[in-house]
Each structure stands twice: as C-alpha cells, then as structure tokens.
Request: fold
Amino acid sequence: MAKVELKQPIVDEIKSMFDGAQSAVVAEYLGITVEQDTRLRKELRENGVQYKVFKNTLIKRAAEGTDFAQLDPNLAGPTALAVSKTDATAPARILAKYAKDIECLNLKAGVVEGTYYDQAGIQAIATIPGREELISKLLGSLQSPITNLARVLNQIAEKGGEGAAEAAPAAEETPAEA
Reply:
C-alpha cells in the first residue's frame, strides 16, 4: 500500500473537522506535560472543540480550497489544531487561557468565520466572551429597565400611593388655571 493511501484517512478526518467549522486555531505545544495537556483537552472537549495534533503537510492538504488554507504559513514545527463548529471564539479563548499558565503553549494563528488572524489578532479574539456569556449580558441589560420600573412602582405602592395622590392634584390645577 502506498504512503499516500495510508495518509488519506487522516486527511479525510481533518477535512471533516474543517467541514462546517466556524473557527480553527493552530498552536505550538512542544514541552507541555501530560497533566497540562489532559486538563486542556478536557476543557476543549467540554466546549465542543476538537483538538488534535497532525502533521503539517496533512493539515495543508486537507485545508486546500477552504478558508483554512490561510493557515499554511503558520504550519511549521510542532502544531496542534483546535477546531470549533459551534462557538467561533472557544478555541482561541481556551487555548489563550491555558497559554497564560503554560509557557510552552503558544497560539500561532487562526481563522475565525473565514477571516485570518495572526498571533496578535487571535490573542484579541481570545478576549471576546463566549456566546452564552454574551447572551446573558444582553438579557441582563434588557431586563434592567423593566426591573427598575418594577422597583419604582413597588415603592409607590408601599407608600400607599401618597406620591401618586400628591402628583394628581397638581396636574389637575394646571389645566384649570389655563
């Protein structure tokens, strides 16, 4: 069996990872301990991110003709590939979080929703909160005015409507004087 035939299933696996993916990040991992790698992989898996180490030539071959081909210049040396189909910022966010504690883990570059980002750009993407957190912040800001209105109405009701009763006669006098 030829070497190409042996490597084709791996290329197909990478292609399936790229198929429908929102983002892919490549990172250098040389020197990471088993314990660190286990914790990293566990968190990536919990967030729906596929993380695997492949040969650079196989990643290049699988990325041909896709947006992820933009990663080619960064595919040198030991490379780990993190791909997400659900949360565009998850691979960058999680890898950057671990890179703070693990000196040998470095983000090289990434493609997020079709746009290439170099190392500085992918670090910036890593600061964007996840989808769940953004939705909860949006709902909190939408709920805030309603909560404030309810609080004001509750205070008026607790006073027995005194504030509303005092305001009503003043409103009645103004039209009568005119």
